[in-house]
Input
Amino acid sequence: MRDLNLTKEEHLQRVLDEKKAMKKELIKLPFEEKIRRVIEMQKVTREFSRDKSKKIYVWNL
Amino acid sequence: MKTLILYLLELKSRGLISNYALGGATALIYYFEPFQTQDIDVFIVLENDSTPLVNLAPIYSFLTEKGVETAGEYLIIDGVPVQFLVPYNPLVEEAVSRSIAVSFFDVEVQIPTIEYLMAIMLQTNRKKDLARLGELFEQPELFEMSLLEEIVSRFNLDERLAKIL
Output
């Protein structure tokens, strides 16, 4: 069960630790899965780009 | 992206290039976490590398026959903007010549080792490269520091490395 009763410092530390752990998991992904994630980021960027005149490429895997 | 890799293999088998390696962000993503990027840089070593003139015409001709189109400085290969670069200095030449084969689905693609990529980032010295290097140094298990130092020393990048550490 996740401890929800933390000080601000403990909460911040937990968030940072979780980010670090997530980064390590992402680094371990196979190359093709990493490229798949890049493509997902490109889709989001294209969807939410304010500058609609700027061409945002979305790769084919 | 797989189409690009297949074209690179065909360019090599036809003798239009003698070697190649993915560069830039795409190569780094193999070692690191995925991050946003738009184009793929590919270092290509031309078959006749001894002349000072860089003639990419046979490569463009091969690609346009495949239906590849250009957009500004890019070749759009199956939706992927690609820039072909000839290794422009001894560090990049060595990085390409010592590149390794890695799997991408059922094909293999050449990429420089992470230590060479880091040395190139030090050499290019752009803000975004230095920021990325800072992140890489937070993951020391990803690279061999002694190898990086050896490359950095031979290419006179020691001072730049010292600034980051």
Summary: The helical segments of chain B are 2-13, 24-31, 57-65, 90-97, 114-124, 127-137, 145-154, 158-164. The CA atoms of residues 108 and 154 of chain B lie 30 Å apart. Chain B has eight helices and seven strands. Chain B touches chain A through 26 residues (CB under 8 Å).
